[in-house]
Amino acid sequence: MGSQEQVLEVARRARQAAAELAPLPRAVKDAALHAIADALVARSGEIVEANAGDVARAREAGTSEYMIDRLSLTDDRVAAIAAAVRHVASLPDPVGESVRGYTLPNGLELRQVRVPLGVVGIIYEGRPNVTVDAAALTLKSGNAVLLRGSSSAYDSNTALVEVMRGALADVAGGVPADAIQLVPGRDRDSVKHLMRARGLVDVLIPRGGASLINSVVEESTVPVIETGTGNCHVYVDAAADLDMAVDILVNAKTQRPSVCNAAETVLVHRDIADAFLPRALRALGEKGVTVHGDAAVRAHAGEGATVVEATDEDWGTEYLSLDLAAAVVDSLDAAVAHIRRYGSAHTEAIVTTSQSAARRFTALVDSAAVMVNASTRFTDGEEFGFGAEIGISTQKLHARGPMGLPELTSTKYVVTGEGHLKGV
Amino acid sequence: MGSQEQVLEVARRARQAAAELAPLPRAVKDAALHAIADALVARSGEIVEANAGDVARAREAGTSEYMIDRLSLTDDRVAAIAAAVRHVASLPDPVGESVRGYTLPNGLELRQVRVPLGVVGIIYEGRPNVTVDAAALTLKSGNAVLLRGSSSAYDSNTALVEVMRGALADVAGGVPADAIQLVPGRDRDSVKHLMRARGLVDVLIPRGGASLINSVVEESTVPVIETGTGNCHVYVDAAADLDMAVDILVNAKTQRPSVCNAAETVLVHRDIADAFLPRALRALGEKGVTVHGDAAVRAHAGEGATVVEATDEDWGTEYLSLDLAAAVVDSLDAAVAHIRRYGSAHTEAIVTTSQSAARRFTALVDSAAVMVNASTRFTDGEEFGFGAEIGISTQKLHARGPMGLPELTSTKYVVTGEGHLKGV
């Protein structure tokens, strides 16, 4: 399983499927999505049974209960996954949208229209719901997908993909089953072959931790969209409303610590540190947060949260837990410099009542999202009104921030003349 | 020269310069561009002298006169380069443009605004005017640039960059000289180090032949935008206007054969081949074109152009010369299949009077630009009304087709609330 030839073979079939998918009208794609949702519900028993095998093997291997929970499927969870597919069907189709259009001085009519990317590879970790989410979003945007989930969910993913492909067979209008394929093989080699399938695969989107993303970026010759590494900062300005600052910090850190838009570092302006830190440490302590502080922060230890000494490593760490790095800075510009040096350019927030501070912070911070007086947790495709997201890009090319359906497209120019010749 | 440490050092300086450039208002950037144009004209003598050395060395090395011409600078050419810089100054500044903006149901105000990419590396061949064009376009779009031209133009490029950097020193408002830097070293190693400067360089844009582009794509860990490989097709449909088809084909092939948007292959519908090919071969023959034909085309040999036997290699060749591959196809769909198999997804044209044929061709052909009844030669930033272009992207991510100033930017989301917390 997972030999280079096998991976290239599924990629070639995906390429052919992508060519057939691209011109399909929205109605056909939506019908396919509803057929998939129906089939997931109807065949929920098979899916849950396949998943039970993965879960049992994970338990035997000593996997943590948290990871077991992420891996597990029930009838209710499958129904929720099917509902998400129907929601994708309800979203506008980005393909064919005219993003630019005018008539040139020589009479040529130019239109720039959205087209599918082609073949999209998704490399992801534990949760099997990603298998269906990613398939639905890529199908809706006219792309063929190659799914490469965690080997721990291989049987679950195999069942889910089989159900989805089976559903496509019955849809009128010709949605090719090869639009949705699992990359064969449980071993790491199959990921390698996928990363070298340049010319067959148009883009790879790794979803997961920093080490997965870095290894894909390093080894892939297929273009990559980096997603989801979030070392997010909250900067409490000298002119902050202290109540608001405490609330935003606690929300950003503790509302769901395991996700990429949770805060990992707080930077506090020196002028407000003595007023802010005692209150913040108390509030963080109530939520069980351990603060990794610099000397100025540690001077307030004992006022609530557990405070330990921050090392240089802490500033660059995405904890994804109830830990928070904390430093006092001399100025807004010093906060910006800290963020530029240590941040992952995902989301940073400023809490301030000063319009000029907000303006300077949003201008100087070079991250996918900059929040003014709002929690970092709002960086999310649903929250931004995109209806759904395939991930949050932390790179600057192609798409930055939450990626919805339009971000799964490219464009082409269609230029219409009546015998137009150049230079005459 | 060109050690890894030296290349990383210029990249680090570029990164710092990019941070200073990003927030600069248009007026400062435009003043810098005019200062550059002034300095190029004022110091034209030095530039032409440095160029004379490059030209002499190229002559000694037996370089073709065509390449010598591309390399050579005169006072008039320097003046034209300066005029192009002033033209870039006249174009709108893409930075700060709001591309999306609305208020979310919870009252958060969301804006997606254009920001510079950061540090852009340009790898290019012979012509020294690219040095200045690329610097002007990247500066206008708020980016720092690392220029890596051909070693044959090293002294010319060194002089041009020195003049541009000198001009920046006198501009009010603080445009850092390190916004424009030459990658040190004439050797290939310096290109390698540039390609591995991930984290310091945000994007590499290779401009040049297929082999340059392929080697960058293969080796770079920095994201790459592929540009300029054009195996462009003209498809003459069964319903074509024959006069128009001959004119478009001759224009697309011969008006400037050495550029990426020139046609390299003509595909002729079988139903019209006997009527079209004799006229086409005559017209191509008058322009000195050698046709590499399949058997059906060769059956018309003797009617004008020199016709030789096409091999499989011809279908994938970007001649950039007065050569043209030619085949007869059974249908529009067969033409599309040929293009998908052998094309480079740059520009393809259909000549037809049939609305349904035009619609099907533009829907099925997956290239950066699709022309209907117009020459492939129109795929160009100037022609498309972009004012200028940094290159023509043949990839699907980030930018596709001619890249103007907006394509040299990314975006960020600025989200403003009044203490908004998630989930409460």
From TrEMBL, chains A, B:
<dbReference type="InterPro" id="IPR016161">
    <property type="entry name" value="Ald_DH/histidinol_DH"/>
</dbReference>
<keyword id="KW-0560">Oxidoreductase</keyword>
<keyword id="KW-0028">Amino-acid biosynthesis</keyword>
<keyword id="KW-0641">Proline biosynthesis</keyword>
<keyword id="KW-0963">Cytoplasm</keyword>
<comment type="similarity">
    <text>Belongs to the gamma-glutamyl phosphate reductase family.</text>
</comment>
<dbReference type="InterPro" id="IPR015590">
    <property type="entry name" value="Aldehyde_DH_dom"/>
</dbReference>
<keyword id="KW-0521">NADP</keyword>
<dbReference type="InterPro" id="IPR016163">
    <property type="entry name" value="Ald_DH_C"/>
</dbReference>
<dbReference type="InterPro" id="IPR016162">
    <property type="entry name" value="Ald_DH_N"/>
</dbReference>
<dbReference type="InterPro" id="IPR000965">
    <property type="entry name" value="GPR_dom"/>
</dbReference>
<dbReference type="Pfam" id="PF00171">
    <property type="entry name" value="Aldedh"/>
</dbReference>
<comment type="function">
    <text>Catalyzes the NADPH-dependent reduction of L-glutamate 5-phosphate into L-glutamate 5-semialdehyde and phosphate. The product spontaneously undergoes cyclization to form 1-pyrroline-5-carboxylate.</text>
</comment>
<dbReference type="InterPro" id="IPR012134">
    <property type="entry name" value="Glu-5-SA_DH"/>
</dbReference>
<feature type="domain" description="Aldehyde dehydrogenase">
    <location>
        <begin position="2"/>
        <end position="284"/>
    </location>
</feature>
<comment type="pathway">
    <text>Amino-acid biosynthesis; L-proline biosynthesis; L-glutamate 5-semialdehyde from L-glutamate: step 2/2.</text>
</comment>
<protein>
    <recommendedName>
        <fullName>Gamma-glutamyl phosphate reductase</fullName>
        <ecNumber>1.2.1.41</ecNumber>
    </recommendedName>
</protein>
<dbReference type="InterPro" id="IPR020593">
    <property type="entry name" value="G-glutamylP_reductase_CS"/>
</dbReference>
